[in-house]
Automatic annotation (TrEMBL):
The keyword Protein transport does not apply. GO terms for biological process: aromatic amino acid family biosynthetic process. The keyword ATP-binding does not apply. One of its GO terms (molecular function) is transferase activity. Keywords: Transferase. Residues 1-67 form the DAHP synthase ferredoxin-like domain. This is 3-deoxy-7-phosphoheptulonate synthase. Residues 87-332 form the DAHP synthetase I/KDSA domain. It holds the Pfam family DAHP_snth_FXD. Gene3D superfamilies: Aldolase class I (3.20.20.70), Phospho-2-dehydro-3-deoxyheptonate aldolase, domain 1 (3.30.70.1140). Transmembrane segments: none annotated. PANTHER family: PHOSPHO-2-DEHYDRO-3-DEOXYHEPTONATE ALDOLASE (PTHR43018).
Amino acid sequence: MIIVLKPDTNEKDVKELVNKVESFGLVAHVSKGEETTVIGMVGDVTKVDPKQLEVSPVVDHVMRVSEPYKLANRAFHPEDSIIDVSGVKVGGDHLALIAGPCSVESKEQVIAIAREAKAAGANMLRGGAFKPRTSPYAFQGMGTAGLDILVAAKKETGLPIVSELMSADYIDEFNEKVDLVQIGARNMQNFDLLKEVGRRCTKPILLKRGLSATYEEWIMSAEYIMASGNPNVILCERGIRTFESYTRNTLDLQAIPVIKRLTHLPIIIDPSHAGGKWWLVEPMAKAAVAAGCDGLMIEVHNDPEHALCDGPQSLKPKKYTELLRQVKGIGEIVGKHVQ
Ligand code: PEP
Ligand code: MN
């Protein structure tokens, strides 16, 4: 981080700022130019708030030259992180394939979909028991009973379970029943929830990107979880809000190389919530794997016309099976294999 001082700053003011920098446990390097003086701060600046320095009347502005996150930063952890989700590896040269309905609706439904997803080649089962719905009058999910259905489906198929946690009240139950804990787009900046899952979740976290979150905001949310004690974070791009209204969201595939450059965390793609239309899922899923993502999370439903949530973006098992056949081929070309 660099502090640029105002042109007429005197020696005494410079000394005061140097003392302030040193009080943060950092080393200050003063460099005097023709017109301006700058102070370079060396050390761990992640805990320094530039605004704390900008309040000084002699400071013109403060510039970051490194990222404000440390634990998620690839600079401090050059190798890819490989996260173990109850035996299924995510990251490195592994391709995670998560499939299942938007929400758990009944035991018959989930077990039927889980069997077909597994036969297609999926290696994890998704299903929402607690649903973050825009309308309070829409189906809110089956809650605890839904989690029990997922557990039954895991018993049948052996597929690890992915489900969304909306409240810290259910962390103990998720630790017991769920293998990968999803934090949804709408909760990406629920900082109290992030701190609690960091502190208390014994399972890895799938952190979805917020509807209009920048890469840095998203990574900072991962940093919250990691700094609170849970290093096992997988990121999920699920489409962002843009001016386009034809699609539900716009899938940002650039997130794959950017996140891989900035962090060591795996990134998976959810093309279902991105496009909001079932026929967009196949081309976007194939493009995502070609671009090097670590996995796909796709909504699959055996009767989308009657789904209680997100039917229009759900694939039928037959289409999903055909998609995975192609996805696996693309994965081989880019060095990603399905376990
Ligand atoms: C979901 O996965 O069903 C979901 C609600 O996702 P998002 O948080 O990305 O909208
Ligand atoms: Mn959904």
